């Protein structure tokens, strides 16, 4: 799939950001097991160690925190590498798709939620280096930390071996199985991922202007609120018509569900109208 050179963006891969600590035999054995699972052997295993080091370690163990002491920079790089690999894969695999569907497919494959699930499947929590506080709060099971670790490991592989092994990692752990399901759903006309974008595209295609999302109700205490959101469309007479409403624990969740229901309703109405005029 990826045809680029395997060279890294600058310098020697093995010289990029490695932890200050040396690896003891026990940790070396742990990283060896992870490398077996990854089916990739690091020329510089300390890049993998850095990818697994959460910021809570550096903040607890060192008086002065250096950005290269944890995996946040690696996560930043991994996010960019992931986006590039997934985008090229979709470009080659779906030549009949326009930009809109391709964008929604990519959003699903690089989403924090999905990366967290991948991190759980890989059992990355077992390999992380966490501070004591993060350990006590269940950091090894937190989806956000696992998602960050997936991106950081991808960056470590890229820095250590270049784009080809990074692409193989993405293909094996993120695309295999998942991509076929998403593409099949998209080809079948099902909504994939971002329902708000899909609804906006429908509005634009049918000259309906812009959908509007309104919070119509809130309930519950601050730490457990729920929101009711309605999505409306202008009727052309200065009034608005409510297309659908939905409830969610966050406004964005409620908006996405309201958009999905609105789009479903609009398509059903359009199909019924087409049948009557046929």
Gist of the model:
The chain has 278 residues and is mostly helical.
What CATH architecture label of the largest domain applies?
A: Orthogonal Bundle
- Largest sheet, described in full? 3 strands, antiparallel
| Total number of domains | 2
The N- to C-terminal Cα distance equals: 45 Å
**Strand runs, count:** 3
Structure description:
This protein is mainly alpha-helical and 278 residues long. It folds into two domains: 13-186, Ribonuclease iii, N-terminal Endonuclease Domain, Chain A (Orthogonal Bundle); 194-277, 2-Layer Sandwich (Double Stranded RNA Binding Domain). Helix content is 56%, strand content 9%. The chain contains twelve helices and three strands; from the N terminus they run αααααααααααβββα. Strands 1-2-3 form a three-stranded antiparallel beta sheet, with helices on one face. The radius of gyration is 23 Å and the shape is globular. 31% of the residues are buried. The model is unreliable at 3-20 (pLDDT under 50).
Outline the fold blueprint.
Layout: H1 25-38, H2 45-51, H3 55-61, H4 72-93, H5 99-109, H6 112-121, H7 132-136, H8 143-161, H9 163-175, H10 178-187, H11 195-205, E1 212-219, E2 226-234, E3 240-248, H12 251-277
Antiparallel strand pairs: 1-2, 2-3
Helix pairs in contact: 2-8, 4-5, 4-8, 4-9, 6-8, 8-9, 11-12
Describe the structure using short key phrases.
278 residues, mainly alpha, Ribonuclease iii, N-terminal Endonuclease Domain, Chain A, Double Stranded RNA Binding Domain, 2 domains, three-stranded antiparallel sheet, disordered N terminus
